[in-house]
Specification:
Number of strands: 7
Strand content: 5-15%
Number of helices: 19
Strand order of the largest sheet: 2-3-4-1-5
Radius of gyration: 27 Å
Structural class: alpha/beta
Helix content: 40-55%
Oligomer: single chain
Number of domains: 4
CATH topology of the largest domain: Rossmann fold
CATH class of the largest domain: Alpha Beta
């Protein structure tokens, strides 16, 4: 039985990795490790199909170390022992351990000394947040890297490579892939290259050649093979982003009917990932401090939608879209942060005042670190007038509260109360 296209097209060296340039690009951390042959154990976490296994196999291919793959949930301690014995014989083995968050204590205790000695270079792969799900003993012995969903340019590049590669890809087949079909294939799989390549192969192998011998892959064929409809059949390929943009702007503008219309278009396109991501952004970008509870309800609705999957996911999604549309809105917090970031980028960071600096080390007292710090809880209202911003920014104001919701109205009152205290209290 032939292996799937996604498996066959896995990168053989670090140069063949698709995307993830923040990790494997020139001068970046994993590239540096490979170039210097100074590998350390790591955990790669991110959505399925984004290249965790590919990076591991590419590292092994670039360093010529033995490469083994196990699953923490299904493989036994005995399987780990086999890898350890091989490492003793060959010197170093790169072990890709899938679902590393499922590693039990027995297997973990066996692995730890081998990680310490460097005989086994562990590359743990997980879709879960390792800071929450992975045991601290493993975390402390690994570097943690987040693997991002691939963008459509990366996926299109990988598809074109697969279409041309006669040895591992589909280059031996006379395939004609329409431009709109390529665009949909790169977007509909939401950054999952494995799904894109396997959908392409299914389309290529299951489509009968035309009279001239060409295997013509149209948008309709790709829609069927990835089981996701395109939003429209526009040639410019802007519909995907136009609908998502209109969806957010309708919620921001409090138009319930328009927001539900664009939600319906995204649901019909089975684009659950884009819906969920956009709603999370809206909850904090557009609603924000106007109604923090609505932002929290958005997180819960997204979690429910992801667990349920379509079509049932539409139910919590509809609830939260109506909720967000009719909620008070405020962008004051993130615009304040953006203003602070702009100052830092303009070189206005300044020195941290001495009384705020860390004083928990030998010699800090001689350097006058933390000496004059006033502990706010020792004062009335748990507040004391002391300088917190660096000298060059001490008069800057970033946060400008709004009054669009009761929560931020309360924050505004407290903010104004503190400003008034500042005017009438000498600085300590």
């Amino acid at each position: 039985m032939q292996q799937p296209l996604a498996y066959r097209m896995r990168p053989r060296t670090i140069d063949e990795v698709v995307g993830q340039q923040q990790l494997v690009g020139e001068g970046k951390i994993i590239r540096r490790m490979v170039d210097a042959r100074m590998l350390s154990s790591m955990i790669l976490y991110g959505p399925p199909g984004t290249g965790k296994t590919s990076i591991a196999s590419a590292i092994a291919g670039s360093t010529n170390y033995a490469f083994r793959t196990l699953n923490a949930a299904t493989d036994s301690k005995k399987d780990l022992q086999v890898v350890a014995e091989e490492a003793k014989m060959s010197g170093t083995v790169i072990l890709l351990l899938d679902e590393v968050h499922r590693l039990d204590k027995t297997k973990q205790d066996f692995l730890l000394p081998h990680l310490e000695s460097g005989r086994i270079i562990l590359i743990g792969a997980t879709t879960e947040n390792p800071y929450i799900t992975i045991n601290p003993a493993i975390r402390s012995r690994t570097q943690i890297f987040e693997v991002k969903p691939l963008d459509e340019t990366d996926i299109q590049s990988a598809i074109q490579t697969a279409l041309l590669d006669k040895e591992r890809g589909l280059g031996e087949l006379p395939i004609q892939l329409d431009e709109d079909a390529l665009l949909h294939l790169s977007r509909a799989t939401n950054g999952d290259l494995r799904s894109a390549l396997n959908g392409l192969e299914l389309a290529a192998r299951s489509t009968k050649p035309m009279e001239d011998g060409l295997i013509h892959l149209t948008l309709a064929i790709i829609e069927e093979c990835v089981q996701r409809k395109a939003l429209t059949h526009d040639k410019n390929g802007d519909a995907h982003y136009d609908v998502i943009s209109a969806f957010q702007k309708s919620i921001r503008g409090s138009d319930v009917d328009a927001a539900l219309h664009y939600l319906a278009r995204l649901v019909e396109a089975s684009d659950l990932a884009s819906i969920c991501r956009r709603l999370m952004v809206i909850g904090y970008e557009d609603i924000g401090l106007g109604n923090p509870a609505a932002a929290a309800r958005t997180v819960n609705a997204v979690l429910a939608a992801e667990r349920l999957g379509l079509p049932e996911a539409r139910i919590p999604l509809a609830d939260v879209v109506v909720d967000l549309c009719l909620s008070p809105k405020s962008n004051s917090a993130y615009t304040a942060l953006d203003a602070a970031i702009a100052d830092i980028r303009a070189g206005k960071a300044g020195e941290v005042p001495d009384h705020l600096r860390d004083s928990h080390y030998q010699g800090a007292k001689e350097l006058k670190r933390g000496l004059d710090y006033q502990y706010p809880h020792n004062f009335e209202h748990a507040w004391v007038n002391q300088q917190y911003l660096p000298d060059k920014l001490k008069n800057e104001t970033y946060y400008l509260p709004k009054e669009t919701g009761k929560y931020e109205q309360a924050l505004k009152q407290q903010y104004e109360r503190i400003q008034n205290w500042k005017k009438h209290s000498p600085q300590k």
